[in-house]
Amino acid sequence: MNESIIKLIGNTPLVKANTLINNSNVELYLKLEGQNPGGSVKDRAAYFMIKNAMDRGEITKETKLIEATSGNTGIALAMIAGIFKLDIELVMPENSTIERVQTMRAYGAKVTLTDADGGIEGARDYAEDKVKTGNFFMFNQFSNNDNWKAHYNTTGPEIWRDSNHKITHFVSSMGTTGTIMGTSTFLKEQNKEIQIVGVQPEDESSIPGIRKWPEAYLPKIFDAKKVDRILEVNEDEARKMTRKLATEEGIFAGMSSGGATAAAVRLCEEIDKGLVVSIICDRGDRYLSSDLFK
């Protein structure tokens, strides 16, 4: 028995992909982060950011919290803030899927929608302006070290353990970059030869959860030295692979997972041998109102 649903964060399954690659000298494994209780990899960072801020005395139950999000971090923060009885406002572009908005509200969060044309950058600007009034505390996942440390302490060790120390390549989409920064840091400490591969969208491609940030908005936690290679994917590749994951592997995921998997498959076909691990960021049910699966 578990004392709290928080105890179910992490230790997600690592599952072999059986249909996606043709290179018999390479194995591709997918880490199913949608199995976290909040449905995404962001449960890890949200818990670390909230719990550590409370332990340091930076926030109390009287603190008004605010955070800009494209979706998954907001859902995770809403869930964990509710458990700790914290007041949180989440800010996101108005073109976010209704499933995401309603899930955050279901957990008890206030949701503020900003102009779609401003994107996540506009949501970040709105939240930062509210913080300047002095009445709000923002975790700022883009510059919060607890974001990447969550993955240094959990995701990296789990992958190292569950791959029986045989991992040769790690592939992750890049948004806040917390997942790839923390996992890279841990894996490189175990074996500096492990290759860390980041995934970004091609220019003009829109893939929720994966970003190529303008310089002014580049996450402060990002350290380019921790990424050996960056692969770019386009929107069509990401969509097709997301559907293929569902129909051929039985893995129901979001579009950023499709993008990361498309890059991982490309990598698997070009290397001579190895064991590749790619992150499946979330579940597909929060995209059903979009045209992703039509």
Q: Helices and strands in order, then pairings?
A:
Blueprint: E1 14-16, E2 26-32, H1 42-55, E3 64-68, H2 72-83, E4 87-93, H3 98-106, E5 110-114, H4 119-132, E6 137-138, H5 145-162, E7 169-173, H6 178-190, E8 195-201, E9 229-233, H7 235-249, H8 255-270, E10 274-280
Polypeptide structure, described:
There is one protein chain. By secondary structure, the chain is an alpha/beta fold. Helix content is 38%, strand content 18%. The strands form two sheets. The protein has a six-stranded mixed sheet with strand order 1-2-10-7-8-9. It has a four-stranded parallel sheet with strand order 5-4-3-6, with helices on both faces. Strand 3 (64-68), helix 2 and strand 4 (87-93) form a beta-alpha-beta unit. Helix 1 crosses helix 2 and helix 5 crosses helix 6. The longest helix has 18 residues, at 145-162. It is globular and about 55 Å long. The N and C termini lie far apart (40 Å).
Name some characteristics of this structure.
single chain, 294 residues, alpha/beta, six-stranded mixed beta sheet, four-stranded parallel beta sheet, globular
